[in-house]
Each structure stands twice: as structure tokens, then as C-alpha cells.
Write a structure and sequence with these properties.
Order of helices and strands: HHHEEEEEHEHHEHEHEHHEHEHEH
Cofactor: [4Fe-4S] cluster
Largest sheet: 10 strands, mixed
Number of domains: 2
Protein name: Probable dual-specificity RNA methyltransferase RlmN
Pfam family, one: RlmN_N
Organism: Streptantibioticus rubrisoli
Distance between the termini: 35 Å
Number of helices: 13
Family: Belongs to the radical SAM superfamily. RlmN family.
Shape: elongated
Number of strands: 12
CATH architecture of the largest domain: Alpha-Beta Barrel
Structural class: alpha/beta
CATH topology of the largest domain: TIM Barrel
Length: 375
């Protein structure tokens, strides 16, 4: 049952349930599932080794498993969940956006971004989003359904396979002396991660469990964003993760935030920040405050000053995001001089601030744009 006052989000009535997949299951559940197919339980670890360590979901590659058992195991535990509609690249092939079609025809997106010192992947946790933020393409499309744990995980597995096989950032890989490894994962694609709480938490466990039970990635390299679902934020703090929490704030005052982030009518700025400070205290991680700068809407000097006063003395870092406008939208990025003034105002309060590197504008880089264009 949800906690008192907690919002619950469900997939629309009649939506098909994604087929069961190895990544949906804990190691113990995998052994039980394999045994239920009449196979020895140790086959579960072999399957996990192929999927989580070798990124091999083609049964023909499972040479340590008897041929007679491969198709049955694949059909029941490694079904096809999603296929690539198309890849679109820019930034000298260092940014690649992928549009996926899920088993039921639903469209979602992920983005791989290669930087000199790291590779970051931005992934989706829902198809669409129910938060209804007016400047966001995904929010305006509405929620189609939650993704399963495996549908979330498979985006990363596919990205790691592309990196290993030199299919992404080839020019940079050659210059750097070899293929890159995925270092950071951000739950900042389509959807509100904490509105798909159980599946997102399950995905984090699959991503960070040691191989072959999971992908063996570091929790410290994972960032989970939220618009401020306070009960879920508090619950997330109790999970014991070392992930970073990113709060999509976008306004320091309730009057404007009620409009930009409608869930603010349920949990106000102070409540959201208090939950963020609790997470920072419990996890030992600095909280990222996401702030999309929108021309003449939230970029005034007095709002920068108010934001600085709210964050001063707390374990927080502001990530200013020049808005990537969506086609036909009245919202657009702030003027460069207003952006610089906003940065100075925060720094005057001793608040660390970074202006995000904007990538992918020429490939419908804003979340939800590519899926909307396909539809």
C-alpha cells in the first residue's frame, strides 16, 4: 500500500504486461524459474553470465548450454523485449540517441554521450510521463505505461554492448586507444523514475549486483532524478543506495513551480528540499538540483537569489540546463547574459553551480522529441 499522501501511478487499463525476463528476477528467482523448466538450477548462473557479463542474448552463443535447452531457456527467460527503430548521432558520433520499439509497439528513448573522461547513458523508466510539466515534450505526451525492470536494464546492456563492440564513438575510441566503458547512468530519460518505484529499484539492483548476478556497475555512477515525489524520496533514502539524487526543481518559489512542475501543488518546495537534504544525510551524497533556465519565466535575478538562499549551507550542486526547446513551444532558452547573471548570483551564496553541456539539439535531443516525431 502507498504511504499516506503518496501518489500512485499505474499503467493504463488494458496495457499488455511485458514478458518475464531474466533481468526481472533476483538470482534466487532465476534458479527457481530454470528449475521450473526442468533444467538444473545452475543453468541460471550460466544464463546470467551470458547476459550480464557477455551481453549475449543470442542462444547460438551459449555454447556451454546443451543445444536442446537453449531455445526453451531463451523463450522463457530471455525473450525479445525491444528493438531499435533507429539511431541518430551527432557531435562527431559522440552523442547517439536511440529510439526503441517495445514488445507492444510502445516507443521510448535512450541516449549515449561520450566525453573525454567518461561515457554517460541517459535512460527511460516510463513510456511517456504523467507529471505534465508544460515545457517537457515527454510530459506533454502523457503516460503510456511503466517500463519493466528488464526493459530498463536492457537499454544499458545494449549500450554497453555497443561500446564494447566499437559501434559508438568510433573516432574517439580510436583516438583514445580502444573502446570506452560506461561510467555513468542517469535516469533522466522519459518518465518520472520514482513513479515507477519498484521497477526502478529493481533495475538499480540488477545494474549494481556483482557479475554475473548483475552488471557490476558502481552505485556512485548512477543518478536518479525526480520532480519531487516526497514519500518516494524518503523511501528511496531507506534503500541504502549510494546513488545520486537529482531534484528537478526549476523554480524556487511555489507560485511559479505550481505551474512549471504541477506536482508542486501536492508537495511544496520546502518539503521537496527537506526530503532531498534527508537523502543527502543518509547517503552521504551531494544532491543535484536540476534547473532548466527558461527565458523570462524562471531566470530572473531575484529567483536566482532566492534559490541561493534556499540551498546555501546544504550539500547541493546546481545543474543549470539551457532549455532545449520543443517544436511549436513558447518556451525557449534564457539569454546568455541572464544565464551568466544567474550563475553569479548562486556563486555569491557559495552554491556550486554548473551549466550543463547541451548536446543533441540537432537530433531532437530533448527527451520525448524523437518518439513524438515517430508517432
Amino acid at each position: 500500500m502507498p504511504a499516506p499522501g503518496e501518489l500512485t501511478f499505474v499503467s493504463p487499463r488494458g496495457a499488455k504486461k511485458p514478458p518475464r525476463h531474466l533481468a526481472d528476477l533476483s538470482p534466487a528467482e532465476r534458479r527457481e524459474a530454470v528449475a521450473g523448466l526442468g533444467e538444473k538450477p545452475f543453468r541460471a548462473k550460466q544464463l546470467s553470465q551470458h547476459y550480464f557479463a557477455r551481453y549475449a542474448d543470442d542462444p547460438a552463443q551459449w555454447t556451454d548450454i546443451p543445444a536442446a535447452a537453449r531455445d526453451r531457456l531463451a523463450a522463457d527467460l530471455l525473450p525479445d523485449l525491444m528493438s531499435v527503430v533507429r539511431h541518430i548521432s551527432c557531435d562527431d558520433d559522440n552523442t547517439r540517441k536511440t529510439l526503441w520499439r517495445l514488445f507492444d509497439g510502445t516507443l521510448v528513448e535512450s541516449v549515449l554521450m561520450r566525453y573525454p573522461d567518461r561515457v554517460t547513458m541517459c535512460i527511460s523508466s516510463q513510456a511517456g510521463c504523467g507529471m505534465n510539466c508544460p515545457f517537457c515534450a515527454t510530459g506533454q505526451a502523457g503516460l503510456t505505461r511503466n517500463l519493466s525492470t528488464a526493459e530498463i536494464v536492457h537499454q544499458i546492456v545494449a549500450g554497453m554492448r555497443s561500446l564494447r563492440d566499437g559501434e559508438f564513438g568510433a573516432a574517439s575510441a580510436e583516438a583514445d586507444g580502444g573502446p570506452a566503458r560506461l561510467s555513468n547512468i542517469v535516469f533522466m530519460g522519459m518518465g518520472e523514475p520514482l513513479a515507477n518505484y519498484n521497477r526502478v529499484v529493481g533495475a538499480i539492483r540488477r545494474l549494481t549486483d556483482p557479475q554475473p548476478d548483475g552488471l557490476g556497475l558502481s552505485q556512485r555512477g548512477i543518478t536518479v532524478s525526480t520532480v519531487g515525489l516526497v514519500p518516494a524520496m524518503l523511501r528511496f533514502a531507506d534503500e541504502g543506495f549510494k546513488c545520486r539524487l537529482a531534484v528537478s526543481l526549476h523554480a524556487p518559489d511555489d507560485e511559479l513551480r505550481d505551474t512549471l512542475v504541477p506536482v508542486n501543488t501536492r508537495w511544496k518546495v520546502r518539503e521537496v528540499l527537506d526530503a532531498a537534504w534527508h537523502y543527502a544525510e543518509v547517503s552521504g551524497r551531494r544532491v543535484s538540483i536540476e534547473y532548466a533556465l527558461i527565458k523570462d519565466i524562471n531566470d530572473q535575478a531575484w529567483r536566482a537569489d532566492l534559490l541561493g538562499r534556499l540551498l546555501k549551507g546544504h550539500r547541493a550542486h546546481v545543474n543549470l540546463i539551457p532549455l532545449n526547446p520543443t517544436p511549436g513551444s513558447k518556451w525557449t532558452a534564457s539569454r546568455p547574459e541572464d544565464e551568466r547573471a544567474f550563475v553569479r548570483a548562486l556563486e555569491a551564496h557559495g552554491v556550486p553551480v554548473t551549466v550543463r553541456d547541451t548536446r543533441g539539439q540537432e537530433i531532437d535531443g530533448a527527451c520525448g522529441q524523437l518518439a513524438a516525431a515517430e508517432r
